[in-house]
Design brief:
Layout lengths: L1 E4 L8 E7 L6 H11 L6 E8 L5 H9 L7 E6 L5 H11 L4 E4 L9 H12 L6 E8 L3 H18 L11 E4 H4 L11 H11 L3 E8 L15 H24 L3
Parallel strand pairs: 2-3, 2-5, 3-4, 6-8
Antiparallel strand pairs: 1-4, 5-7, 6-7
Helix pairs in contact: 5-8
Length: 252
C-alpha cells in the first residue's frame, strides 16, 4: 500500500475514509463537493482509498490532489483489490483523527452527511461511547424490504439490536477501532463494526440520509441487482456463522 497526500497543514480531529473501486467518473464531483462542505475547516481529513481500481482512477487522483486548497485530502493506494472491507481498514489505519469512520464514494451519499454526522456524534451525551450511523430514506419498497429482512436475520442470529446495517456514514471514536480483531475484508465489515460496538456497550445514534441514485457506474454491494443481493446474503450469513464460532471459542 502506498500513501500520498496534498500538503498537510492541519491536525485533524475527524477522519473519514472513502473506499474507491473504479470510481474515476465520480471522483471530480466528489472532490468538488468536499471543497464546498469543508470550506473554512481544518479539523477534518478525507482519506481516499484507491482500492485496486482497474480504470484510470490513479490519473484522476493525481489531478485532484494537485489542486490548491486540498490539504484535507489524503490517498492510500491499495495495489490489488482484496475487498471492500480491506480497503476501508487500510484507510482507517492511515487516519489521524480522534473520531473516525467511513462512507461510500459512489455519489449516493452526499459528503455533507459526513460533516453533519461528526457534528451529531460529538454533540451526543457520550461521544466516546457512541457510533453515528446513517438511516436511509427515500428508498424503493423492494430495497427497503430486503434491508429489513437482512437486519432481522442479523439481530436474531447475533442477539444484538441493529438497523439498516449497510447505511452510511459510520462514524465512531478511534477507541472502537482499537478493539478490532480479525475483521472481515468484504461488505460484512459494516455488520462487524456495529456488532463489536454493541458488544462493548456503545450506543448507536442514527441520522436520516437521502440515498440517491448512482450518477456513474454500477452498484457493488447489495443495492444493485438480485444477483448482487444474493451474493450479499451468502456472504453475510457465512460471516454471521464465523462470528458465532468466534464467540463460542473466545476469539471475540
Amino acid at each position: 500500500m502506498i500513501e500520498s497526500s496534498a500538503a498537510m497543514s492541519m491536525t485533524p480531529v475527524f477522519s473519514v475514509v472513502l473506499p474507491c473501486y473504479n470510481e474515476s467518473e465520480t471522483l471530480p464531483q466528489l472532490f468538488s463537493r468536499f471543497d464546498e462542505v469543508l470550506e473554512g475547516r481544518n479539523d477534518l481529513e478525507v482519506v481516499f482509498v484507491n482500492n485496486g481500481s482497474k480504470d484510470n482512477s490513479s490519473d484522476i487522483f493525481a489531478i485532484q490532489l494537485a489542486q490548491p486548497g486540498r490539504q484535507w485530502a489524503r490517498l492510500v493506494d491499495v495495489t490489488v483489490n482484496q475487498g471492500y472491507g480491506f480497503g476501508i481498514l487500510a484507510g482507517l489505519r492511515a487516519t489521524q483523527g480522534k473520531f473516525i469512520g467511513w462512507t461510500h464514494a459512489d455519489s449516493q451519499y452526499d459528503p455533507h452527511y459526513v460533516v453533519e454526522g461528526f457534528k451529531r456524534l460529538i454533540a451526543s451525551p457520550r461521544p466516546d461511547r457512541t457510533i453515528l450511523q446513517g438511516r436511509r430514506v427515500g428508498r424503493n419498497a423492494f430495497d427497503a424490504f430486503f434491508t429489513a429482512g437482512m437486519t432481522l436475520l442479523s439481530c436474531l442470529a447475533l442477539g444484538i439490536r441493529v438497523s439498516d446495517v449497510n447505511a452510511q456514514p459510520k462514524l465512531f471514536p478511534r477507541a472502537l477501532f482499537d478493539e478490532v480483531k480479525n475483521p472481515p475484508h468484504d461488505f460484512s465489515l459494516d455488520l462487524y463494526m456495529l456488532f463489536l460496538g454493541r458488544r462493548l456497550g456503545y450506543s448507536i445514534e442514527r441520522m436520516p440520509v437521502v440515498f440517491a441514485r448512482r450518477t456513474f457506474g454500477e452498484a457493488k454491494g447489495g443495492a444493485g441487482s438480485l444477483r448482487l443481493k444474493w451474493k450479499l446474503i451468502k456472504r453475510t450469513w457465512a460471516f454471521i456463522g464465523q462470528l458465532r464460532r468466534d464467540i463460542r471459542t473466545g476469539k471475540l
